[in-house]
Amino acid sequence: MRSLYSYLLLYISMILLLFCTSTKGYSDLEVLLKLKSSMIGPKASGVDDWEFSSSPSAHCHFSGVKCNEDYRVVALNVSFAPLYGTISPEIGLLNKLVNLTISKVELTGNIPTEMRNLTSLKTFNISNNYFRGSFPGEILTGMTQLEILDAYNNNFTGLLPVELANLKHLKHLSFGGNYFTGEVPDKYSDIQSLEYLGLNANDLTGKIPASLGRLKNLKSLILGYFNAFHGGIPPEFGSLTQLKILDMASCNLTGEVPESLGNLKRLRTLLLQQNSLTGRIPSKLAGLTSLKDLDLSLNELTGEIPESFSALQNISMILLFKNKLHGSIPSYVGDLPQLAVLKLWENNFTGELPENLGRNGKLCNLDVSSNYLTGSIPLDLCKGGTLQALILMDNFFFGPLSEKLGNCKSLTKIRIKKNNLNGTIPAGIFNLPLLSFVELDDNFFAGELPPRMSGDSLEMLKISNNLISGEIPPAIGNLRSLQVLEIARNKLSGEIPEQIFEIKVLSKINIRNNNITGEIPPSISRCTSLTSIDFSQNSLSGEIPKGINKLVHLSNSMSPGTG
């Protein structure tokens, strides 16, 4: 009996201990229920299984909850469920928490200052919510073990908290996607453990601290988008030898690209687009031998593409569009083994495209429009069957299009208008399964359109102002997704095929200034999606079909044309 009595006393003591482990007399179970009450807003769903129970360990089985051997909550992960509420101050009673992740649940309100009691936290993730107000830096002073602080994509305002500069174990800091103002604290350079620093998409100003170059363990530095810094890229960033990602896009940078960035041998991504950077592209950037993605577009860079860039054997994306670059496109560009995306549009490039461009079998997006390029279009652009976008418009290319393009089943977009191309348009282009946009206007294409067309995805077909002859193929009616058909200013003859008006989504048709004869097909009245028709400057006869009044969306006047 004495032994049984001792066990009963021990059991009762354990129960009392479990339900009184938090301060203010709240058990962890009660704290979680208070949290649920505050986090659940109107029309919310989630944490439905958080219900009261007399079992001392019941809360340890709640969704997103983990406990230690004493049934204290050490991890709370509530994510991807729309809650719409707020965080109650009682969260500060979960003083054994190591991992707090409340992400993408649409919570709002302020961060409770009672969270300063969560001194065991290693992971603090409140990203993708609607928290507002200043971020209470004082809650961080006791979180000496914190490794991850992620407050990305909320509505925080005010200055960036400086208190976290004393967190000696912090590896990941993300305050991006908020409304923080003021300058980047110079003291952030004291967080020597930092591997990820994201301050992008805020309203930050001032100079970027050169002292951040002392963060020797930093692997990702993301500062761009909506910030408006003064000055340029600190040359000291060339000392961040562990850096893999440097993103300073669209943040008002001026000056030149520092040559010292060429020291970043591990850098994989360099994004400096949409700034006001000037000067030449440093040839020493060829030292970025691990680089995969390079974006210097939308700046004011001058000079030529450095010959030294032939050393960038891992690069897959080169974006230099909308600068003031000139010279030829180096021949080695076609030899880059991983190159998949090349966008050089709106510069002053001259000469020809490298003959071997595309032979690496990786090319998927080529855009060199609005330059002064000439010569023929390389034959092997789709050698690997990966080419999706071919955009060469507004140049001086000449010669025919290769029949190989008609076999490039990966193509989704062809835009080659305003060149000097000639020959027959490859018949296979009209049968490509994924092609949605064809723009070949303002060239010298001749011959006839093919009698067979079956491109199910083709939405826009623009081949105006060429020398195309023959009749309009009835097979155009097979292009069920076609919305815009522009074949004006050619040498087409014959009648308008009635099959065209069986395309239910066709909204615009322009065949003006050809040699079309006969009457307008009555079937046009069944094409009720039409908004624009231009049949003018042809030799059409007869009357306008009576059913034309069914075309209630038609906005342009229609002319049958005269001989």
From TrEMBL:
One Pfam family this sequence matches: LRR_1
Domain Leucine-rich repeat-containing N-terminal plant-type residue range list: 27-68
UniProt signal peptide: 1-25
Keywords in alphabetical order: Leucine-rich repeat, Membrane, Repeat, Signal, Transmembrane, Transmembrane helix
Xref: PANTHER family: DNA DAMAGE-REPAIR/TOLERATION PROTEIN DRT100, INACTIVE LRR RECEPTOR-LIKE SERINE_THREONINE-PROTEIN KINASE BIR2
Protein name: Leucine-rich repeat-containing N-terminal plant-type domain-containing protein
Protein source organism: Gossypium arboreum
Species lineage: Eukaryota, Viridiplantae, Streptophyta, Embryophyta, Tracheophyta
